[in-house]
């Protein structure tokens, strides 16, 4: 079992829908990243959080440390949101290196 | 530039050749990371540099892989005697100082797509 599990692996939705991507992890962490990877490979960090909730525009990220779970929400989704969304955690124990989920491929149709 | 830069953006090489991939981190960032993303696979950690400390090489897949960071800035990832399974996108990231009690957000470069024929 991977240390970081994301669901769903693939998600297709219509423009305007509310999107939720989930991330569960099995180790104690000091931080969690949500990353966005567009076709062509470039990776952008959307959020880094260690507790609570953060919001940037239409994107919201939440984390529950006790339940070892984080969610990424997209409100009023748009075709330009189509990308792979990756959850990555920094474990409390061990080296300063991110452990990545397998990613969720999101497709928003117009 | 304002972000992490990597070169080349694409590299095609023949099996058995050596390749060098370069990463220029954001100015002032003392932590530098190399990751690999194979086709259809997730990202995996390769190596981490923090200031003048010994690098964490725990993610390097074989002794054909090595990396150095000169002057605390530019880093070079070298793959010797390349194999077809080395084909992947190699990503570099940098952050402000990271340590046992601190962690800062990582900023990713655009990656180098390596194809070994």
Describe the structure.
The complex is a heterodimer of chains A (110) and B (117). Chain A is mainly β. Chain A has no helices and 11 strands. Chain A has strands spanning 4-7, 10-14, 19-25, 29-37, 43-49, 52-56, 59-64, 69-74, 83-91, 98-100, 104-109. In chain A, strands 2, 4, 5, 9, 10 and 11 form a 6-stranded mixed β-sheet that branches. In chain A, strands 1-3-8-7-6 form a 5-stranded antiparallel β-sheet, with no helix packed on it. In chain A, a hairpin with a 5-residue loop joins strand 4 (29-37) and strand 5. The termini of chain A are far apart. Chain B is an all-beta fold and 117 residues long. In chain B, 0% of the residues lie in helices and 45% in strands. Chain B contains no helices and 10 strands. Chain B has strands spanning 5-7, 10-13, 19-24, 31-37, 43-50, 65-69, 75-79, 88-95, 107-108, 112-116. In chain B, the strands form 2 sheets. In chain B, strands 2, 4, 5, 8, 9 and 10 form a 6-stranded mixed β-sheet that branches. A 4-stranded antiparallel β-sheet of chain B has the order 1-3-7-6, with no helix packed on it. The mean pLDDT of chain B is 90. Classes of the chains: A mainly beta (110), B mainly beta (117). The A-B interface holds A 30-31, 33, 35, 41-45, 48, 86, 88, 90, 95-103 and B 31, 33, 35, 37, 42-45, 48, 50, 56, 58-59, 89, 91, 98-99, 103, 105-108, 110-111, 113.
């Amino acid at each position: 079992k991977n240390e970081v599990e994301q669901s769903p692996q693939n998600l297709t939705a219509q423009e305007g829908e509310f999107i939720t991507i989930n991330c569960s992890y099995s180790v104690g962490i000091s931080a969690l990243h949500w990353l966005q990877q567009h076709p062509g490979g470039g990776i952008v960090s959307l959020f880094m959080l260690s507790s609570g909730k953060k919001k940037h525009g239409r994107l919201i990220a939440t984390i529950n440390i006790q339940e070892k779970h984080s969610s990424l929400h997209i409100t009023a989704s748009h075709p330009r949101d189509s990308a792979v969304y990756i959850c990555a955690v920094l474990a409390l124990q061990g080296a300063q290196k991110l452990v990545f989920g397998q990613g969720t491929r999101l497709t928003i149709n117009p | 530039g304002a972000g992490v830069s990597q070169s080349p953006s694409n590299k095609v090489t023949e099996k058995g050749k050596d390749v060098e991939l370069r990463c220029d981190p954001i100015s002032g960032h003392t932590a530098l990371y190399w990751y690999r993303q194979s086709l259809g696979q997730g990202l995996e950690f390769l190596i981490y540099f923090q200031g003048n400390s010994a690098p964490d090489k725990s993610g390097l897949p074989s002794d054909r892989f090595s990396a150095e960071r000169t002057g605390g800035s530019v880093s070079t990832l070298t793959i010797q005697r390349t194999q077809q399974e080395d084909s992947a996108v190699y990503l570099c990231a940098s952050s402000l100082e990271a340590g046992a009690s601190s962690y800062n957000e990582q900023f990713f470069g655009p990656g180098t797509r390596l194809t070994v024929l």
